[in-house]
Amino acid sequence: MRAVSTSQGGLRHLVKVGDHQLVTDEPSDKGGAGSGPSPLELLAASLVSCTAITMQLYAQRKGWDLDDLQVEADFQPAERGALTQFEMVLSFPDHLTEEQVAKLKVIAAKCPIHRTLEGEAIFSERVERRARA
Predict the structure, then answer these.
(1) What total of structural domains would you count in the chain?
(2) DSSP string, 70-113
(3) Angstrom distance (rounded) from CA 25 to CA 5
(4) pLDDT, tens only, 76-99
(5) Are 6 and 56 part of one and the same domain?
(6) Is 46 a residue whose pLDDT tops 80?
(7) Do 4 and 24 reside in the same domain of the chain?
(8) Using an 8 Å Cβ cutoff, are 69 and 57 in contact?
(9) Do 18 and 42 share a structural domain?
(10) CB 67 within 8 A of CB 55
(11) pLDDT-based confidence at 110, cuts 50/70/90?
(12) Contact 118, 50 (CB under 8 A)
């Protein structure tokens, strides 16, 4: 999987992922123009969408109706020497049993983004220089 971020002036970037593209920026109070979600907002969006999709795929296999599913996340980015804290709210339809809800809560923690954020990451970086076009 590859993602490429290209500056479009200021703090605005065009991000290409596969056949898709989106704009990221910072809010005006942080020096951006607010023309797109910030990278931290995209992190939260990745977590809630991955969690929801993971639960929906499981529910489909079980024949459960999750059409009214909603997943929310609030988080505080890590301060130096502290952990990032995520607070997630899983809102399920009323017709699910307690057993179904309990199983979906377990499944929610198995989404790839959740697992990635729980684990340690290894970063490899290199510098390339490009002539301006």
Answers:
(1) 2
(2) EEEEEEEPPPTTS--EEEEEEE--TTS-HHHHHHHHHHHTTSHH
(3) 11
(4) 888 887 888 899 999 999 999 999
(5) no
(6) yes
(7) yes
(8) no
(9) no
(10) no
(11) very high
(12) no
Integer Cα distance of 97 and 28 in angstroms:
45
Tokens of 108: 């929610």
- Cα 63 to the chain's mean position, in Å? 26
- Angular region, 41: left φ>0, alpha ψ -120 to 50, beta rest: alpha
30 and 86 in a single domain? The answer is no
Tell me what pLDDT residue 15 has.
Answer: 96
Distance, CA of 100 to chain centre: 24
Query: For residue 80, what are the CA distances in angstroms to 74, 105, 114?
Result: 19, 30, 21
**64 with 14, same domain?**
no
What domain range includes position 85? 38-133
Question: Distance between CA 101 and CA 91 in Å, rounded?
Answer: 10
